[in-house]
Each structure stands twice: as C-alpha cells, then as structure tokens.
UniProtKB/TrEMBL annotation:
Compositionally biased spans, kind Basic residues: 234-244
Listed Pfam families: Pvc16_N (PF14065)
Region (Disordered): 194-244
Annotated ranges, domain Pvc16 N-terminal: 4-180
Top-rank lineage group of the source organism: Bacteria
Identification of the protein by name: Pvc16 N-terminal domain-containing protein
Amino acid sequence: MIHEVDEGLRRLLAESGLEASGVEVVFDAPTRDWSARRNAPTVCAFLYDIREDTARRGSGHEEVHDADGFVVARRTPPRWYELTYLVTAWAGRPQDEHRLLSQVLACLAATDRLPPRMLTGSLADLGLTVALDTAQTGADGPAAADVWSALGGELKASLGVRVRAPLAGATVPVGPPVTEGLLVRSAAGADERRTAVADEGAEAPAGRRLRYRESREAGTEGFAGPRDRPSAPARRRRRGDRQP
C-alpha cells in the first residue's frame, strides 16, 4: 500500500506541470550527502512517519462471492494508516526553490484526496477515499526540526503532507458449497442390521442420504439449488375454542 501512495503522489505532482518542466520527483531521504549530489531541480517527498488510525479500525468480516453467487472467501475489513511526508524543493538558488515549493503547495492544497484515476493496485481495487492533508497544524509525530536533525542536514523550508490510506484486509478462503444431503443412520437400526447381516452373510446396507425433493425437481443437485420456505403450520385448536 505504501508504494501505491507514493505513486499516487508522484502522479499528482507530475500532472501539475513539474514533469513537463524537467523537475524530478523522488522519495529519497534528504541527507547531507544526498543533497550534495543533486544537480537538477528536484522535489523530494520523504516518508518519515507511519501510524494506524485506530479510531477507524473495524471488526467482523465480509463475504467474497464468485460469479455464480457462492461464497468463496471471507475478508477482514481494511485498516487505515496515516503516512506523513516531508516535502522539499531543491534547486540552485533559494528563490528557485521557493518558487518550486509554491507550485507544489498550490497543487496539493487544491485537493483533499488523491483522485481515483491516480490510484493503483490495492488502493484502486478497494475504491475507498485516500484523504490528503497539506501543511496542517497540530499533527502528531516528529517535528520537522527533529527530522532534519536526525537526517544530519540543515533546517530547510518544507511542507508536511499527511495521507490517510487503507490497507486491504486478509482474505481467507472457505470450503466449497454443500451439494449433497446428510447421511443419517439409526443406532438401534444399525444393531439389528448387523445381526441380520451376520446371520445371512449379506453386505450391510448403506445409510439413507437426505435430499430435498424441490432441488431435484428444479434440476439441481443436493442443497445447491434454490428452495422455497416451508409454509407455516396450521394453528392447533384448543379445548374450549368456539366453533365458527
């Protein structure tokens, strides 16, 4: 899921005109050594914090059906995670970096979600909204100054971008649908049949397999076919009830 969010951000920034102007969008850690090797305008979106949104954690499961309508698997609900990026612009002069960062801000502030056409993989399959917050205050997680200190670089103008994305739940396959009835044997009858078989030397008869007559008439086998609900039993008349 994380790499799919990266791809969605890259497509969003590229569509704003960065790619056409020759600006590269990367997801590297902007360390001192990395910045020294940059020789072209670059926008860096560094992912530095991942946290689960426990308030949105669901329970239970949903059924997965095949083309014929049979249940083939059960899937747990998706879990939601907050991915926080440190977005910076790199160019030869601070004025160029600020101009580039302003273009990035205008692109990200214009939307509060990643457009569906930019989602790939499991994010596209789930069809859920991937929310996007840009330069929000009061966000949890490490401060930008702490991130720069950990990277070993000098403090630089940056944008904090938070993405809330779902992680697909686990899918567990189930057994095939029931197509035959139950096999029923009577314990008392079985003792009598065993005695008769021992006397006559015959082979013991098999148990009786239950099937629905409606299933056979509908041209289906066993329990796989549709069945009508049985009609309600007639109300028993009690003593003392008046005759109509």
